[in-house]
Design goal:
Layout lengths: L14 E10 L2 E11 L4 E5 L6 H8 L7 E6 L2 E2 L7 H5 L2 E4 L11 H12 L4 H14 L15 H13 L5 E5 L7 H16 L3 E5 L3 H7 L2 E6 L2 E6 L1 H6 L4 H11 L10
Parallel strand pairs: 3-8, 3-9, 6-7, 7-8
Antiparallel strand pairs: 1-2, 1-4, 4-5, 9-10
Helix pairs in contact: 3-4, 3-5, 4-5, 5-6
Length: 263
């Protein structure tokens, strides 16, 4: 299935992370991460379970509070104690593994509620934006249904449309295909490819190596809370230099290997 055309993207925003640290008690999950994402760039984070990929992503929009370092995103210093978190989050969309849709709201309601409450859009304007974004993911005809009536792939596409309805400058994807049946993964990845082509700045935690190789401008391999190797996708995935990267990719790309890597 080919993905529909996506709506125009808001002005792109970059990300700069310096010395980022995050601990849970005595467990240091992020150990001084440095990462820069240029406006319009697609960066994929890869690595084994427990490497800190999802934690890094959640720190960017302060769903997790860092213990050290700085994060600059969309013109805000997220780690500044005085940052207006809600204002910053208006510019950052996030798509989770488990969709996180409101089960009591219709598809349209899921895509309008934050627009009305956060962006203060009228009901009519919010619905117009939502329907445009639902059309961009091929689901406008399902606007009146509830999440429980949809497949997992459809729910994830609604989650993407909901995030896009807020006109984000940056999109964060945390393993967006990990909970999907194999036949629906392609639909979600196709929409993400279209977003990349439109110039959306994206940071994606994924184990879809084909997507990372073909779509990402930059791939970051993490292990043990540190960045082990990073560079252009063809280099990191096609010709990794670090033995840890080589071992990870060998196991992930081996079709007979059944271990699941999931943050």
């Amino acid at each position: 299935m080919s993905a529909p055309e996506t709506a125009p993207i808001a002005t792109a925003a970059g990300v700069r992370i310096t010395g980022l640290r995050k601990s849970y008690g005595d467990n240091e999950v992020l150990k001084g991460i440095d990462l820069e994402v240029n406006p319009g760039q697609v960066v994929c984070l890869i690595g084994p379970s427990g490497s800190g990929k999802s934690t890094l992503l959640r720190c960017i929009n302060l769903l997790e509070q860092p213990n050290g370092g700085t994060i600059e995103v969309a013109g805000f210093t997220a780690t500044d104690p005085d940052v207006e978190v809600d204002d910053m989050r208006r510019h950052v969309g996030m798509v989770f593994q488990q969709f996180n849709l409101f089960p009591h709201l219709t598809v349209l309601g899921n895509c309008t509620v934050s627009q009305q409450k956060v962006l203060k859009r009228s009901k009519a304007e919010a619905q117009e934006v939502a329907l445009r974004q639902l059309a961009s993911v091929g689901l406008a005809e399902l606007a009146g249904r509830f999440p429980g009536e949809l497949s997992g792939g459809q729910q994830q596409r609604v989650a993407i449309a909901r995030a896009l309805s807020m006109d984000p400058q940056l999109m964060l994807f945390d393993e967006p295909t990990s909970a999907l049946d194999p036949e629906t993964v392609g639909d979600v990845l196709a929409i993400m490819r279209k977003l990349a082509q439109k110039g959306m700045t994206m940071i994606v935690v994924t184990h879809e190596m084909g997507f990372a190789r073909d779509v990402a401008d930059h791939v970051v391999f993490m292990d043990g809370g540190v960045v082990v190797e990073q560079g252009v996708s063809a280099q990191v995935i096609g010709n990794p230099q670090n033995v840890r990267t080589q071992d990870f990719l060998r196991r992930v790309l081996d079709p007979t290997h059944v271990e699941v890597y999931d943050d």
